[in-house]
Amino acid sequence: MVSAVAALGVWSVSTGTGAVAAQKPKSGGTLTVLQSSDANNFSALSGSGTGGPPATAPQQVVYGALYTIDPLTQKVVMRMAQSLTANAATTVWTLKLRPGLVFSDSTPLNAAAVVANWDRIKNPVNASFCLTIVTGLT
Q: Is the pTM of this model over 0.70?
């Protein structure tokens, strides 16, 4: 199941349940992913295969997502984000992150990190597959 997400990547895999999130993570093991195109890299910028869903599923399994859209209900499912709200004109969106998020190197995954990643994606030099989606973000 694949659905849209904004932030560290633009597409994400959604399980539709929070059951997996409640389990304690453990290192090692094997990740098996079924998708309709070959993964030629795990770059969060360029994706794999032709880019876009479902080709980016491996990246989202590795990098995570701020939120996803449940493919069955079409409702937003919060992941690393705690909430996503808009002003009345839907011109300003407020994304609140879950507390205590960190990258694998223990660097805080905070608002500054999200902005830095969006700025990286918006930079045309990086040739992100989702450049047109994030270009209007300010």
A: no
pLDDT tens-digit series, residues 85-130: 999 999 998 999 999 999 888 999 999 998 898 888 888 898 887 7
Report whether 126 contacts 47 (CB < 8 A): no
Beta bridge pairs of residue 81: 97
Note if the bond before 124 is cis, omega within 30 degrees. Answer: no
| Whole-Å CA distances, 46 to 35, 104, 122 | 17, 21, 12
What's the CA dihedral at 74, 102, 128, 3 to 10 degrees? -10
Map tokens 């880019």 to a residue. 51
CA 106/CA 60 separation, integer angstroms = 19
